[in-house]
Amino acid sequence: MKARIVVTPKKTVLDPQGKVVANAIQQLGMQCVSEARVGKYIELDISGENLELTRQKLDGICKDLLSNPVIEDYRLELEK
Amino acid sequence: MEFAAKRRKNHKNKSDRKRVRMKFGVVQFPGSNCDQDCIHVIRRVMGHEAFYLWHKDEDLQGADCVMVPGGFSYGDYLRCGAIARFAPMMTAVKKFAAAGGIVIGICNGFQILLEAGLLQGAMQRNRRLKFQCESVHLRVEHASGPFTCKAQEGQVLRIPIAHGEGNYFADTSTLSELNRNGQVAFRYCDGMGKTTDEANPNGSLENIAGITNRSGNVLGMMPHPERASESILGSEDGKVIFESIISWIMNHGTGRKESVVLSKG
User: Fold this and answer.
1) Is there a contact between B115 and B85 (Cβ–Cβ < 8 Å)?
2) I want to staple B64 with a disulfide (CB 3.0 to 4.6 A). Which of B78, B81, B87, B254 is the partner?
């Protein structure tokens, strides 16, 4: 199985890095870009067959370790 | 006779002093780099006992106060403090804190305590996206509790910071809870004690530089009091925090006994 996890700063949280990136994109001529949010991408290779059980466990790992729920959201994609 | 009595009295005082030497345990993670500064200040400046607590151990060795020092635990991988919070020693520190033990986290130590859930909120990158290494002013918000009982309310301390992720964030309800319960220990301010935006080095909400937990026995602060406890280093203002801890434990005791009972159970 392969898991792809994207961690991004919450919408309610000011993302100083994203702000700088958005400014840089605008300076390169794309004024249409109004916001950027910089996060993390984590890829996992997983052995085993039980998709649902793995998803449940990974959800816990995402909350406990891979993201900080105070400031970050995560999106978990899991496929065989 | 009088002289002998005086000598006996002096001797008694001396042995009294010896008996009340506090034990400070300084947690060592791979990447901690302020651990030795903490040990130095406690031993040489404050004259108390200090020893290291290895992150893989679970024994606090009878520490009266646990210090989680600054540095870059586990290379700051993933998020600052995110990996360190799972160290076996942190399980012991959590039990100790739950039993009322005095815990102070400085810089990376603060970040670890936040990740471990011992303190509320989270750290983000500094708003200027730079590692800020400079002397800042802090205002003491409350002159009470284990960490500031020897300070004055509104006192301005000059203590250095050195961090890239010290931009304190908490949601609105947490923030008002912290204010309501008097959990904000220090705020960044100017030399006159005004909490202006210019005096805020990292963009922390409401200029917050240090907070405690609800019961007041756990403190996290970004500035480094251990780097400002000797005049040769340019400031002795940080000393008041260690003096407070020592005086508090002398007068109120420590959560150590309860934590021993807890860990046995």
Assistant:
1) yes
2) B254
